[in-house]
Write a structure and sequence with these properties.
- By secondary structure, the protein is α/β, with parallel strands linked by helices.
- The chain contains 18 helices and 10 strands.
- Strand 4 and strand 5 form a beta hairpin.
- Helix 8 packs antiparallel against helix 9.
- The longest helix is centred in the middle third of the chain and has 54 residues.
């Protein structure tokens, strides 16, 4: 079963960033270059205090006329150090930023592609808005760390360590005392860090909840407006946003305390060391140049600690984001292609279908069978109508044929091969479907009709549109087939969207066609045209038709009557009327004069 991504771990740690290792490996050369430039920039920074000492002790302290040339050379040395720092820092910034953008794009693509492979059961427990939040907000956090914060942290760690080593080398006993104080600073910082970590994850979850709510409402905006619920939904969103804000404020407050404590404590310890160095100058045991060198190293060490405290907060947030992304990436779909799939010959006269004692229940309703011991056989080229009351299992049957779910009992064969032994792509390439609520993508008519056959020619697309009686209204659009249809096809009527979906199925030309109330959105005139088009499309092809209006299925070769997941009747229209069962009752309700 697909993992429920709503389950939240107690906390994230920087170790969660190890999930990015597979995305870092392809860019070892770029990472090596980034580390090299980082070390060179840090070395140039650490060389600056030494060059400053040479300037002070070699020229400024003596102040004689004859030291002018030496003074110029000392300033020239400082400029060379600054030039090296600028060059190496710019190179580091470019390489690291490139890595951040590249790795973030790879993570986003990998997660999105993996989510597309998930079965519908995954989306029963995970809101689409939450997935979108992880693809946007969480990947942005990862990009911030990989492309900026991590580099800053490494650079300041190197500089801080280098400055500390230089200070220890210059004044060992003094800096041992400072280091001991810095160790004491780490202990409360760990406690603060844990709280920031928990609040960072909670903040990201609240943002995802807000995004999920907005996505759900915007996708049903017509229903919201038709019920006058705009203000109510705005208030719900406001409450969700306020919850996310309050959680974020707690995170920011904890992080501010963490950063402030680290800066204050480390500055106090380092100022003590600087005070001791100043006393040494007064005592004559330290030169002015050495004091200047110590001052700069102290500043570098203090700033490094301050930046590291800030970076640590970023790492904690990115760790939570990485963890959420890895949850999606490591989610296993309930339906996968077999390791060694079987293939079946492509039928010339429609697919042959066989169901062997199929039983299925949804994970959310384990005690209620949606399909109950269903056994049936469909010959190649037959048209089978599937009827029954709402909730009888008709749409579930189609989902099982497409392997959106796998039955818990029994199996389904297409052309003599169990569908769970076929590659998913091969199975679904054999099946065309026209759903009750057609899905139109935000693109052109060309794009939408070609969706099942991207390599189809313009002539084939137009032929399919003509067969579905869609060519006339498509030609009348402002830019014809090149017209942008809007998100979910909002520029088309319901009947036009349905005919476009039918054209898509006709163009795909599969041996098995599934029609789920394919004419439900059409007016009487359009329905007659599309029925004629569907009859041509069903020729030499196996077709299963779900229909609530029994007038549309009377010409079917076989009619299956489902009730509570069981096949209780089957036969032609005349045979079922003669039996006087459920089908006859449904027919009497629809065909009796008003």
């Amino acid at each position: 079963m697909a993992k429920n991504t709503s389950a939240r771990p107690a906390a994230s740690t920087p170790r969660s960033l190890s999930g990015l290792k597979p995305f870092l490996r392809p860019y070892k050369t770029a990472m090596a270059a980034a580390v090299a430039f980082l070390l060179l920039a840090a070395a140039a920074t650490l060389a600056f205090p030494w060059a400053l000492r040479q300037l002070i002790d070699g020229g400024l302290a003596q102040g004689t006329q004859g030291q002018t040339e030496g003074l110029a050379s000392d300033f020239g040395l400082l400029f060379l150090v600054a030039m090296g720092l600028a060059l190496f820092s710019a190179a580091r910034f470019y390489v690291v930023s490139w890595l951040g953008e590249r790795i973030t794009a790879d993570v986003r693509q990998a997660v999105y592609a993996h989510v597309l492979q998930q079965s519908p059961s995954f989306f029963e427990t995970t809101q689409t808005g939450e997935v979108l939040s992880r693809l946007s907000a969480d990947t942005t956090l990862v990009q911030t760390v990989v492309g900026s914060s991590l580099s800053m942290g490494l650079r300041n760690a190197v500089m801080g360590s280098g400055a500390l080593l230089m200070l220890v080398w210059m004044r060992p006993w003094l800096m041992v005392q400072v280091i001991a104080v810095l160790v004491l600073i780490v202990l409360p910082s760990v406690w603060f860090g844990r709280r920031v970590r928990r609040l960072s994850r909670a903040s990201q979850d609240r943002v995802a909840d807000t995004s999920a709510m907005a996505s759900e409402v915007l996708n049903a905006i017509s229903v919201v407006q038709s019920h006058g619920a705009e203000q109510r939904e705005a208030r719900r969103y406001e409450a969700s946003t306020l919850s996310a804000f309050n959680t974020a404020v707690r995170r920011v407050r904890a992080r501010a305390l963490l950063v402030g404590f680290i800066i204050l404590a480390s500055s106090a310890a380092l100022l003590w060391g600087l005070y001791q160095g100043t006393l040494a100058v007064y005592a004559g045991t330290l030169s002015a140049g050495e004091l200047g060198q110590i001052i700069v190293y102290v500043i570098l060490l203090a700033s490094a600690f301050a930046v590291l405290g800030e970076v640590y907060g970023d790492l904690l947030r990115a760790a939570g984001a990485t963890e959420r992304l890895m949850e999606l990436l490591h989610t296993e779909s309930a339906v996968v292609s077999p390791a060694h799939p079987l293939s079946a010959p492509w039928p010339q006269a429609g697919a042959e279908l066989a169901l062997h004692g199929v039983g299925f229940h949804y994970a959310s309703r384990p005690l209620t069978l949606a399909i109950d011991q269903l056994s049936a056989h469909v010959q190649s080229g037959q048209t089978v109508a599937v009827v029954g009351p709402s909730g009888a299992g008709k749409t579930t049957l189609f989902d099982l044929l497409l392997r959106f779910h796998d039955p818990q009992v029994g199996h389904i064969d297409i052309d003599g091969v169990p569908i769970h032994r076929m590659a998913l792509h091969d199975l679904r390439a054999r099946i065309g479907i026209v759903p009750q609520e057609p899905v139109i993508f935000s693109g052109t008519a060309w794009d939408n009709i070609r969706y099942g056959r991207p390599d189809a020619s313009d002539a084939e697309v137009i032929t399919a549109a003509q067969a579905a009686y869609a060519h006339e209204f498509l030609s009348e659009l402002p830019e014809g087939y090149d017209s942008f249809l809007g998100e979910r096809g909002v520029r088309l009527s319901g009947g036009q969207r349905q005919r476009l979906a039918i054209a898509r199925a006709i163009l795909k030309n599969p041996p098995l066609l599934l029609l789920d109330e394919a004419t439900s959105a059409l007016d009487a005139q359009s329905e007659r045209m599309v029925q004629a088009a569907l009859e041509r499309a069903m020729h030499n092809r196996t077709t299963l038709v779900i229909a609530h209006r029994l007038a549309t299925v009377q010409k079917a070769d076989v009619i299956w009557v489902l009730d509570r997941g069981r096949l209780i009747e089957q036969g032609t229209h005349a045979q079922l009327i003669a039996q006087g069962g459920l089908y006859a009752s449904l027919a009497a309700l629809q065909f009796q004069p008003s």
